[in-house]
Design brief:
Alpha-Beta Plaits, about 65% helix, five-stranded mixed sheet, 5 strands, 2 domains, about 280 residues, single chain, alpha+beta, elongated
Length: about 280
């Protein structure tokens, strides 16, 4: 499987962090006479790296410039005033502190890159998804594709086509009476109930899962759609008889709008849905 650039950079930065930490530990352990000073300088290097991780590389570089200036001044003081000789250990933290900062920034940058890539993938998946994740029903994207084909078939072969739009009356009030998990289960149960009310050649869609709205494409005329409407409402009544004292303890009432396809007034799937939604106002 091909790995993305953010993941490779993150792995490389993490391994590099382990390496420079190991090198620093070995350096500190190898010079017992400067143990306390090296521990202090290590803490300073880690502090600059942590600040860089949570802010930006620019701030990290500023902190490193201040550190190099301060540590360089301290080393110069030891050399001139105390007569110390410049040795390799004087340069170690001048190199390692910026390295710690750079690696911390690499980790931050790689994490941000992976988050951006994940967000892009999620957005792409959502735009390409054709199924509702909670109900396993076709979603509105599938409806638009299918409705375009069904409308063309209806127009060409003079086949009756009717769209039902189904909603739960007073849904905003009802969802306050159940938990989020129960709400998801309730939508699923209603979807299955609607699915058993149609024929195999008809199609059921979840048009909106936030404000549960189902769409049913039926190969029948308006009168035939009334049979399906009555069948659904009868099943909801039976559902209420069981669930009013069961898991949900609420009574459901569906409102259903139906519109028969007319090529002269319905030009797009969205027009089809819009006209069916208007019929909801007459289901009292």
């Amino acid at each position: 499987m091909k790995r993305n650039q953010g993941s490779l950079l993150s792995d490389g930065a993490f391994l590099l962090w382990i390496v420079i930490t190991f090198v620093s530990i070995v350096f500190i352990a190898g010079d017992p006479n400067r143990y306390i000073l090296n521990i202090i300088l290590l803490n300073v290097a880690l502090l600059a790296a942590i600040i860089t991780y949570f802010t930006s590389l620019t701030i990290g570089l500023i902190l490193n410039v201040l550190f190099i200036f301060g540590y360089g001044t301290f080393t110069l003081y030891q050399t001139i005033v105390q007569g110390s000789v410049l040795e390799g250990h004087h340069y170690f933290w001048l190199i390692m502190t910026p390295v710690f900062t750079l690696v911390a920034w690499m980790i931050t940058f790689s994490n941000q890159k992976m988050q951006a890539e994940n967000a892009q993938l999620l957005k792409k998946n959502q735009s390409l998804a054709t199924m509702d994740e909670n109900t396993d029903l076709k979603n509105s994207r599938s409806f638009q594709k299918d409705a375009t084909i069904f409308m063309a078939l209806s127009k060409r072969y003079q086949i009756e086509l009717t769209l039902l739009v189904v909603k739960v009356r007073y849904w905003d009030e009802l969802k306050q009476m159940v938990t989020r998990e129960q709400m998801t289960d309730l939508i699923y149960d209603l979807s299955k109930l609607s699915e058993t009310s149609i024929r195999m050649n008809d199609s059921l869609y979840m048009l909106n899962s936030d404000d549960p709205t189902w769409g049913l494409l039926l190969f029948t005329d308006r009168e035939g759609a009334n049979i399906v409407i009555n069948r659904i409402k009868d099943k909801v009544a039976s559902f209420n008889a069981v669930e009013s004292t069961g898991k949900y303890k609420i009574d459901l009432d569906l409102i259903i709008g139906a519109i028969e396809y007319d090529a002269e007034t319905v030009t797009t799937p969205l027009d089809f849905i819009g006209q069916a939604r208007k019929q909801l106002e007459y289901d009292v």
